[in-house]
Automatic annotation (TrEMBL):
The lineage of its organism: Bacteria, Pseudomonadati, Bacteroidota, Flavobacteriia, Flavobacteriales. It comes from Robiginitalea marina. This is DUF4382 domain-containing protein.
């Protein structure tokens, strides 16, 4: 297992391919997401969620992702678009699939990461090596959603007091595989990618963020951590936002 050390969001790759790659120019990409709690445990009350540490439990973790992009390796072979039975709008129309092309997988994708592993993209792509994966957090525009106007929402308890963190940032996360051995390879068969969000790495009093410093400033019984800052926790909200973007781990199985 090779690891590119950056740390919160884990991109785990597992591949299943057939041997007759020359007979089919296309492969399948299956993209999933889940949350894990490497240093925590299940709460005694299923409705209470997951215990991160002695002070913190998480019951809801929702994110909204706008889109995903895959960029071909500069050394990728030329590929005739006419041989691919798919959406020509995924790349330019110069007749070849090459480094000028970026495959775009449009959302939005609203994910409930406390619901177990969720597959939210399952699509046919041309065979090739991809050196960059990019995805974008964006606020939801669905008025029926709990994420309406937000890009991330986390609820739970801090020292048994209810808390809610949300943010409305619109930020891109880019994973560039400078090492060619780390490329995502689409070939005949199925390539499975799993975005694994480990909250234990984010909310860690030693190397992460200690939420016990958050306060219920307006004394309404809920610790609110957001850019609107009703409880005086705005600096903490921005710290969580930045940690979510900066701590990324890439695992290649």
């Amino acid at each position: 297992m090779k690891s590119l050390t950056l740390a919160l969001l884990t991109l785990a790759l597992g591949t299943s391919c057939s041997d007759d790659q020359d007979d089919n120019p296309n492969g399948q990409l299956r993209l999933s997401a889940k949350a894990t709690f490497t240093s925590g445990s299940a709460s005694k009350s299923p409705s209470a969620g997951k215990t991160i540490n002695a002070d913190l439990e998480v019951s809801e973790f929702l994110i909204n992702l706008k889109e995903f992009e895959l960029e071909l390796d500069d050394d990728a072979f030329e590929f005739d678009d006419d041989d691919f039975e798919g959406d020509d709008d995924l790349w330019d129309d110069d007749g070849y699939l090459d480094f000028d092309d970026e495959i775009e997988l449009e959302g939005p994708f609203e994910l409930d990461l406390m619901a177990g592993q969720i597959t939210f993209i399952n699509t046919t792509l041309p065979n090739g090596k991809f050196e960059e994966l990019e995805f974008k957090f964006d606020r939801s525009d669905d008025p029926q959603s709990e994420l309406f106007g937000k890009s991330v929402l986390i609820r739970g308890t801090i020292s048994q007091i209810p808390f809610e963190f949300w943010h409305d940032f619109e930020d891109e996360v880019e994973i560039d595989f400078d090492d060619p051995t780390m490329d995502i390879v689409i070939s005949t068969g199925v390539e499975s990618l799993v975005l694994d969000f480990d909250l234990s790495l984010l909310f860690n009093s030693i190397s992460g963020i200690d939420l016990t410093q958050a306060t219920d400033g307006n004394e309404d019984g809920v610790i609110e951590i957001s850019p609107q800052d009703p409880d005086g926790n705005n600096a903490l909200a921005n710290e969580i936002r930045n940690r979510m973007k900066d701590l990324i781990d890439l695992l290649d199985d």
